[in-house]
Amino acid sequence: MSHPVTTNPLIIMLINMTVVFLVLTVLGLVINLIHIIDPTKPKQEKQEEAAPAPAEAAAAPVESAPAAGTAAAEEGISPEIVAVIAAAIASYGYGMEQVRAIRPLPRDAWKNSGRAQMANRG
């Protein structure tokens, strides 16, 4: 009959690990090749033209934010925070005219926790 090539477990382990790492290397190369040849990726020209537009859109709402900014300033929100919120909204493609209000959420967690502890003591 046939005899095994080797019965040494260390050699078998090294052969198996070599095969696994070779297969992983080939898979990594295939993934990199797919990223290079990706047909769904937009062309570089479109990305270069689209890149300045969001930056301009982000700057425009900050200047046109007095309506939301004045209401926010009355509530204690600094103009810098309003500018950051406006830039974040503009980065998603929305305009400041779509923002109805900027107001902080109430942070009553500590107060409610203290009340719950006092109620549980009784």
TrEMBL record:
Protein's name in the database: Glutaconyl-CoA decarboxylase subunit delta
Gene Ontology MF terms in the entry: sodium ion transmembrane transporter activity
Ranges of biased composition (kind: Low complexity): 50-71
InterPro entries hit by this protein: Na_pump_deCOase
Keywords: Cell membrane, Membrane, Transmembrane, Transmembrane helix
Pfam families: OAD_gamma (PF04277)
Localisation: Cell membrane
Bilayer-crossing regions: 12-37
Gene Ontology cellular component list: plasma membrane
Domain of life, per lineage: Bacteria
Swiss-Prot/TrEMBL GO biological process terms: sodium ion export across plasma membrane
Lineage start: Bacteria, Bacillati, Bacillota, Negativicutes, Selenomonadales
Region feature Disordered, mapped onto this chain: 41-71
